[in-house]
Amino acid sequence: MTDDPTIAYDLFKQFERDKFSLVAQKYDQAIAAVTSQVNEAILDAVGAKCGLRLLDVACGTGWLSAAALKREAIVTGLDYAENMVAIARVRSPQASFHNGDAENLPFESGQFKAVVCNLGILHFPKPERAIAESFRVLKPGGRYAFTCWTPPTCNPFMALILGSVQTYGSMDLDLPPGPPLFRFGERGECERVLIAEGFTEVSVTELPMKWTFSTPEDVMAKVVVSTARLGTILAMQTLEQRRNIENAIIDGASNYATDSGVEIPASIMLAVGYKP
Questions:
Q1: Using CA atoms, how far apart are residues 75 and 114, in angstroms rounded to an integer?
Q2: How far is it, in rounded angstroms, from Cα 104 to Cα 50?
Q3: Does 101 score more than 60 pLDDT?
Q4: Which of 53, 83, 175, 232 could link 24 by a cystine bridge, Cβ 3.0 to 4.6 Å?
C-alpha cells in the first residue's frame, strides 16, 4: 500500500510517543483498567496457555501481558512510549519488555506462537506495516489478534465524547494528521487487511465493555489526563468551548447513572488471523 499523503507519519508517531509517555501513570489507572475487560477474550482467541511464546505489541502498561503470564505463557512486550514500558516492567518483572516500534519489530522471524495488540492498531501511522511485521515474527500455525474501537454509531462512549467536542468545540486544531480513528472498527476492513497480509481463518467479533466513573463530573477529567490525542484535543479548546463540552458530557453521562456510579457502554472489534 502506498503512503497516504494526508498522514504526517513521523510527526504523528513522535506525538503519540511523547504524549503516551507523559500520561502513562494516569493511563494505567484509567484507560488500561477499562480495556483490560477484553484481555481474556484476546488471549482465548490466540490460544494463550502454559509455555506458549506470546508477543504483546503496543503493550502499554502491561495489563494484557500480566494476564498472559497468569496463564503461564512466555511473554514479551513492546511499546513505543518509554514510560509505558517502565510501568509494565514493574507490573510483570517475569516478562521481557522492550521499547520499540510496532512497524519495525526488533525480533527474528518466526519467533512467537501468538501476537496480540489490544487497541494499539489505531495508533500506528502505517497499520498494514505493523500487521505485516506481526505476521513475520509469527511461527507458521501461530495466531494474531488485534482490537480497535467501534465507531460512535455503535459505541455510546465515543458518541458522547466526540459528539460533544464536534457540537460545542473545534476539531480544526494544530495536531499532526493521523490515520482514521475508527478504520478498524469496521468488520469488513479488518477482514480485508488481515487477508491481504497473508492471514487465513480470519474472524472478527464485536465485544462489549463499560466505562465506569464515580460521577458524571469525573468523565471529562479522566479522559483529558489519561489519553494522548483525545485528551489533547479537549485540552486545546477555548475556556468557553471546554465549559460547553464538559457540560454536554456531564449531561450525557447522567443518562448512564446507576446506584453504584456511572456505567457508559462501549465496544471493540476483535480481529483474529492464522498464519498458515
A1: 10
A2: 28
A3: yes
A4: 83
How far apart are the C-alpha atoms of 52 and 49, rounded to whole Å?
6
Phi/psi of residue 127, each to 5°?
-60, -35
CA distance 67 to 162: 31
Q: Where are the alpha helices (DSSP H) in the chain?
A: 9-22, 24-29, 31-35, 39-45, 63-70, 82-91, 127-137, 156-168, 187-196, 218-226, 229-235, 239-254
Task: Write down the pTM of the prediction.
Answer: 0.95
58: three-class secondary structure by DSSP: coil
C-alpha cell at 216: 458524571
Q: Alpha-carbon distance 228 to 81, whole Å?
A: 11
Q: What is the pLDDT of residue 223?
A: 87
242 versus 3: the higher-pLDDT residue is 242
End-to-end CA distance of the chain: 22
Strand pairing of 257-258 and 200-213?
unpaired
Residue spans of the domains in the chain: they are 9-151+177-211+267-274
Tell the CATH topology of 9-151+177-211+267-274. Answer: Rossmann fold (3.40.50)
Q: pLDDT tier at 2 (50, 70, 90 boundaries)?
A: low
Distance separating alpha carbons of residues 136 and 174, to the nearest angstrom: 36
